[in-house]
Amino acid sequence: MASSSSSFNHGYVYHVFLSFRGEDTRETFTGHLYNALDQRGINTFIDDEGLRIGEEISQSLLKAIDESRISIIIFSKNYANSTWCLDELVKILECKKEKGQVVCSVFYNISPSDVRHQRGSYQEAFDMLEERFEDNKEKVKKWRMALTEAANLSGWHFSNG
């Protein structure tokens, strides 16, 4: 009988890819989740370089998503402020559809409904994105659809306080 870890290795470099907004959760929830997975021998990709404003998502990040068996999306207050996070999300959902990647959603200090319907901080983010990308409305539409789809997946809701 094959071990559970060997079943992950069919074409995958990582067991898990973590998609998160660094400024919101790197030092808290995401950091703790990464450490817990790592301690159990689960090969997890975490972007530890951070993002500079206006920088486009790197090909290495897209490749890491493609090479992961599972993606965990950690939605937080400022997730939608990052075009990098939104591009990751679109890629994750493409891998779910095309390769059967397992996708789990975590809602950290944010309501799943706010993510699903782009309300609250997500509405504020999209107001700015629609202005910034007024010449590329299709991209903004794709991000909105991805948020709605991901928020409709089963997941976990965590709140501090």
UniProtKB/TrEMBL annotation:
PROSITE patterns given in the database record: TIR
UniProt-listed Pfam families: TIR (PF01582)
Stretches assigned to the TIR domain: 12-161
Keywords assigned by UniProt, alphabetized: NAD
UniProt xrefs under InterPro entries: TIR_dom, Toll_tir_struct_dom_sf
One GO-annotated biological process of the protein: signal transduction
SMART domains for the chain: TIR
Transmembrane intervals: none
Alphabetical list of SUPFAM superfamilies matching this protein: Toll/Interleukin receptor TIR domain
Designated name of the protein: TMV resistance protein N-like
Taxon lineage: Eukaryota, Viridiplantae, Streptophyta, Embryophyta, Tracheophyta
